[in-house]
Amino acid sequence: MSVIQRTASTAVSWCTPFFMPFYDILIHRVTVPLVWRCSTQNNLRPLFSYNFSKRHVDIGVGTGYFPRRAIKDTGRDPKDQHQTLVDLSEYALTTARRRVLSKCPEAQVDCVHADAVLPLPESLKGQKFTSASLFLVIHHMSQPTASKANAIANAQSLLTKDGVLVGCTVLGKQWEKTGHGYKVTSGEPLGRAAALLLGYCNRRRAFDNWQDDPNVLVEALNAGFEEVETSVVAMMFVFKASKPRSEG
């Protein structure tokens, strides 16, 4: 029970009326490009938007930054867009839905209050989507990487046979990709700013990613999908997985 309680507290601790108005500026203009050294505009947004289908489920919504921009990026008629937002924070869900609809009032936006690593709620069972995303959420989960990988399995179960899953998460160490998987190149984060921010976020339990291992996430992706692409961009682990494996 303690694990579940900690997961809930860490995942929603930053989703407050005070912080959320500043989220996009602090995250997408400061910490992601300057501290984690992975460009939102050049790396993350294209990955999200290119794989954003007409029926999408976004797990870990933040402010709805990526979904509302993806509709514009795809040039899609908002009336043809259905997206389901899943998050542990009801405030984040309300904020994200409001912001998406403020730009695209004709889009269909549903909200589901749920923990990404726990069994799916009844409201999601039986639903199928052609794309899913886990953007900037895994590093918030306060569990071992193997347990966090449940979020990948949950997302996979929601996809159609031609569905695609994309995601990214901040790592707690410097990793590099080799011919035999990922290995730690330094136990220290990349740069003093990253070290200070990781230390602060982990102490405040907004993050729990010191021990996150991308190899475990790759294993979960390969277990659920036939085609998997992964990479590390500075402190960010980025992935795309397609062709979900059938059960059994």
UniProtKB/TrEMBL annotation:
<keyword id="KW-0489">Methyltransferase</keyword>
<dbReference type="GO" id="GO:0008168">
    <property type="term" value="F:methyltransferase activity"/>
</dbReference>
<protein>
    <submittedName>
        <fullName>Methyltransferase</fullName>
    </submittedName>
</protein>
<feature type="domain" description="Methyltransferase type 12">
    <location>
        <begin position="57"/>
        <end position="165"/>
    </location>
</feature>
<dbReference type="Pfam" id="PF08242">
    <property type="entry name" value="Methyltransf_12"/>
</dbReference>
<keyword id="KW-0808">Transferase</keyword>
<dbReference type="InterPro" id="IPR029063">
    <property type="entry name" value="SAM-dependent_MTases_sf"/>
</dbReference>
<dbReference type="InterPro" id="IPR013217">
    <property type="entry name" value="Methyltransf_12"/>
</dbReference>
<dbReference type="GO" id="GO:0032259">
    <property type="term" value="P:methylation"/>
</dbReference>
